[in-house]
Write a structure and sequence with these properties.
0% strand; 78% helix; mainly alpha
Length: 127
């Protein structure tokens, strides 16, 4: 693959990961907080890790792509997923899941990704 294709693949993988992180976040906070919703949140989180692992591989293989912001985004996806899974596993509230999701949205915005309309409020709250 050439540099241009790798950059496109990275952006596509991050977009897919963001979509599924959003769905994981929504599922974790779904009405009733049922076991089914928590399981669904973990399934989406697993998909996020799959996309981010692939993005990590491309990033590490492509010497011409160097970006602190991208490294922060990739790391924050993992932090969000870890927090969500930890809270599901320990049956704790998702307060920190929400905090890490907000951080993810902000890092994505700093990297140049436009947040979902529903997430735009997180960016406005920080200004």
């Amino acid at each position: 693959m050439n540099l241009e294709n790798n950059e496109k693949a990275l952006k596509r993988l991050i977009a897919y990961a963001y979509r599924d992180a959003n769905l994981a976040h929504k599922s974790a906070f779904s009405k009733g907080n049922s076991e089914k919703n928590q399981l669904l949140a973990c399934v989406y989180a697993n998909k996020v890790l799959t996309y981010i692992s692939s993005a990590d591989t491309i990033y590490l293989m492509e010497d011409e792509i160097v970006s602190i912001e991208l490294e922060q985004v990739l790391h924050q996806f993992k932090v969000f997923v870890d927090e969500l899974i930890k809270n599901v596993g320990t049956d704790h509230s998702h307060q920190w899941t929400d905090i890490e999701y907000i951080r993810l949205v902000k890092k994505l915005s700093n990297y140049g990704f436009e947040p979902f309309e529903a997430d735009a409020k997180y960016l406005q709250d920080s200004e």
